Amino acid sequence: MKFTHSALLALAASAMAAPSATTKEQPRQAGACSSAVSLDAKTNVFKKYTLHPNDFYRSEVDAAAEQISDSSLAAAAKKVGDVGSFLWMDTIENIGRAEKNIADVPCDHIMGLVVYDLPGRDCAAKASNGELKVGEISKYKSEYIDRKYFLYTPFLSLIRYGGKKGKKADKRKNQTAIVKMLKAHPNTAFALIIEPDSLPNLVTNADLQTCKDSAAGYRDGVAYAFKQLNLPNVVMYVDAGHGGWLGWDANLKPGAQELAKVYKNAGSPSQVRGFATNIAGWNSWDESPGEFSTASDAKYNSCQNEKTYVEKFGAALKSAGMPNHAIVDTGRNGVTGLRKEWGDWCNVNGAGFGVRPTADTGLELADAFVWGKPGGESDGTSDTSATRYDSFCGKDDAFKPSPEAGTWNQAYFEMLLKNAVPSF
Ligand code: BGC
How far does the centroid of ligand 1 lie from the alpha carbon of residue 130, in Å? Predict the structure, then answer.
């Protein structure tokens, strides 16, 4: 490759300016480990590492506890902050939120992050439509996953954004991209959940125009994420819905093939460990015969609980040629029997926190129970006039009122806490 003189200058400037503003401000060494992490994705890393209780969720929970007047409930609330959970990078800007929380990860903890910003996100629903539009795949790649351009150089920012857009350029200067952030923390272990709902939607909602429009970007984006995030300190689990979604007999094989195809297109990256389930929409781990087993269509779904789903989908993934170990979200599945229909996913009313993160699942294929969706953050708004209002959030079995997806819902949090199984 040839470099022009100015490109070389830009390269040098970029190298000098590389650490982001956040990197400089944070006391990076505080809890940092002294040697590089090398995760073997052929093993269950959750046996060695505890899912990190990140300070972002802790601060949400602490603020919530302060609003609770009943002192014993407030004390119980505080304990929720000690539970390990995943932190969502749901916008380019919120990668910075993740970065602020890495400094204090102890050596025996693994930081859980959710990669969630595909163009045309949430194609079969409205609640979590994201910042990137269909077609903005190059932005997803170059600004969210892996910054390829030299946006840090004041010179190039000036050319790219001009004097008028100086503020925009300034903001970008302080942003990082995920690959860069992960590489800046080689001594920290990371578990990534890749793009909840995206590939499952291509299996079961392929006939919707919105999903047709999003399909190419989803496949390209997830493959790109797999490839670029394939770092020694990372293990990846790609979202596979839950038993009431890809667990239908007719969906198991196509679902596994969809995931495996993307994985192979990415060059079968070594750090992909398998799949994540129960994140958006959930089931009990091992209730038997299962919450919806008496429904008239139950005979078409042999995965009536999540344990069976992990076994069956895991087997289908293996046949399709993809690593097949799972992590399962138990953050909000403490109570069952609440939904009118299996597919009801929005702010389920009556829900309770479930089993705390552990690698002790009793099933070899299930690496760990984790808290994927941070309990208390909304699934979607119940305001019928909002642009992202989805009718699922207005159903009889959905909690109301509920704010926009990702926004804190104090009343929902208190309900999860009171209904927690096991209790706090
Ligand atoms: C929302 C995201 C949020 C995530 C975790 C998703 O439903 O769309 O904005 O970060 O949930 O709460």
Answer: 10
Give Dmax over CA atoms of the chain in angstroms. Answer: 71
In angstroms, the CA 175 to CA 48 distance is 32
Work out the pLDDT band at 398, boundaries 50, 70, 90.
very high
Quote the CA–CA distance of 163 and 169 in Å, as a whole number: 9
The sign of the torsion formed by the CA atoms of 414, 417, 418, 424 equals: negative
Structure tokens at 308: 């069976």
Start-to-end CA span in the chain (Å): 59
C-alpha 348 – ligand 1 centre gap (Å): 15
pTM score:
0.89
Identify residue 160 by its one-letter amino acid code. Answer: R
Report the C-alpha gap between 355 and 421 in whole angstroms.
7
Domains and CATH numbers, the chain: 5-148+177-418 (3.20.20.40)
- Ligand 1 within 6 A of 377 CB? yes
Residue 134 structure tokens: 């269909």
**Average pLDDT score over residue span 325-349:** 97
Read off the DSSP letter of residue 375: B
Tell me the chain's radius of gyration from C-alpha atoms. Answer: 21
How distant, in Å, are the alpha carbons of 13, 32, 119, 406 from that of 226? Answer: 29, 26, 16, 24
Extract the annotated binding site for substrate. 88, 90, 242, 245, 345, 373, 377
How many Å lie between the centroid of ligand 1 and the Cα of residue 113?
12
